TrEMBL record, chain A:
Keywords: ATP-binding, Nucleotide-binding, Transport. Residues 2-237 form the ABC transporter domain. This is ABC-type quaternary amine transporter. The lineage of its organism: Bacteria, Bacillati, Actinomycetota, Actinomycetes, Kineosporiales. One of its GO terms (molecular function) is ATP binding. It comes from Kineosporia babensis. Pfam families: ABC_tran. The keyword Transport applies. Belongs to the ABC transporter superfamily. It comes from the Bacteria.
UniProtKB/TrEMBL annotation, chain B:
One of its GO terms (cellular component) is plasma membrane. Keywords: Membrane, Transmembrane, Transmembrane helix, Transport. Residues 16-198 form the ABC transmembrane type-1 domain. This is ABC transporter permease. CDD domains: TM_PBP2. The lineage of its organism: Bacteria, Bacillati, Actinomycetota, Actinomycetes, Kineosporiales.
Amino acid sequence: MIKFESVVKKYPDGTVAVNGLDLVAPSGKITVFVGPSGCGKTTSLRMINRMIEPTSGTIWLDDQDTGKVSESTLRRGIGYVIQHAGLFPHRTIVDNIATVPLLLGWDKKKARARSLELMERVGLDPNFARRYPAQLSGGQQQRVGVARALAADPPVMLMDEPFSAVDPVVRGELQDEFLRLQSELGKTIIFVTHDIDEAVKLGDQVAVLKVGGTLAQLASPAELLTDPVDDFVAGFVGRDRGYRALGFESGTLDAASEQTVKFGDDSATVLRAGRDGWALAVDEARRPLGWVRSAAVPSGKQVGPELLHRGGTLASVSGSLRAALDAALSSPSGRGVLIDENGALVGTVTAAEVVQRIESHLHARRDQHDEGAVSGG
Amino acid sequence: MINYLKNNPDNVSEWFFAHVWLSVVPVVLGLIIALPIGWVASHYRWTYPPITNLAGLLYTVPSLALFIIMPSILGTKILSPINMVVALTVYSVALLVRVVADGLNSVAPDVRAAATAMGFTGLGRFLKVDLPIAVPVITAGLRVATVSNVSLVSIGALIGVPQLGSLFTTGFSRYIPGIVLLGIVLCLVLALVLDGLIILGGRLLTPWQRAVAKR
């Protein structure tokens, strides 16, 4: 657990970077600090490992006052991932990752072995071990940065916009892998970003900070999207928040069963299987491949890859309503494809059906609210 | 030129080796002194302008004048080579302070922040992070300082310190251009060899730079 207690950072020129921050980041969870430039999010992060000293207030690491430990002891026990990775250009990848273990006095062999283990863990080719950072792509460097922070297995990790300098596709991959890694490791993480989408995707809780260094709202991502506490937070959370909040709603959908076709089926089979002019093609394991327009298969010809429309997204049957709605909206047939955990077809659902489900969820929530208001009053 | 070399091999080789150590020792001493001063100039930003300006000013002092006033400052004999070593060390420091400071400043802010966050402290960080990354910049400065020293050393002939510069004074007093030419050639060879050694040393210390170039 990391606890901020009335933490203030004021610079000699009078600038207040952080103004009386009170906040608890629970153990084993990801707490995201998000806000515009100048909101003091990085300053707050750097006060935890005392790269910046607070002007007043206390930061607790479990029951330890961070102001009362030596800086180097404190820092060697906290993993740190920085924007652009900040790798040591003169050290090989394996030595970069081994930095903290070597500082802690591990012997070289053990530190190297640990490095290699972590490279595998973060999805890096072991052939990179002897390379230098400049020989890696931005995304690979950032993986090394994460591995380096994890090397001495610190219970706490500080991450300062670690994924903001890579392209959106790589960023998405890094975020997904980060979540997978966290589900295995359960570190106490403070994650700084200026990107509200990243905050909502990664955070167990999100702290929205305002310029001048005050906490505007501390809430779960779903609560932040559905119930912003003031205009600033509402504005910062941005458009589409109703739609984005669906990402946190899941509900069982009644999937309609779907007649399917396979590669090699003839036009007659497709016409029979198709509904509203579209048939879904699947592979041997019943994994959806794409939609086939029944009328597009010339008589006597067979279904092949060239006839597939791949526009539709796939939604997990146990996933969010947002994904299900998106699957329905993006599907050329208007029927969203639901799959199970193996990727096999479960059935299809229309946008209207998903919206109906959403409506009933919202009703249920409003009823709860009313009851709460009554009993509270 | 060749005749003189044939007739006076002992003289020439003695002067050559005198020239070698008069060129090298001040650069080595200069680097050792410039490292902490350069570190101060890079670590405490406000000291950078005064320190580098002062260093620049030192470099403008004419070398002959410095050789001549050294004995009165140091209390050494006028012909002592110590005078030259100290004076040339001053020049090397003057050149290298800025180079060391710039080299240390060339460490990217992200790398600095990462080093701090990993728990590197003062000297360890200087030796394991900042200095190795500064090597390419410092190497470039060392090359300039060394080559400039090879040429400055020869001026010492005017105050009677024997080294390759003595070939210039000898050639001049005897009106034999060949002897002067021999001096120039040997100075040039020495400068090229020392320069090559520094490049080699720099390469050995920075395998990471070549690895990047190969990509």
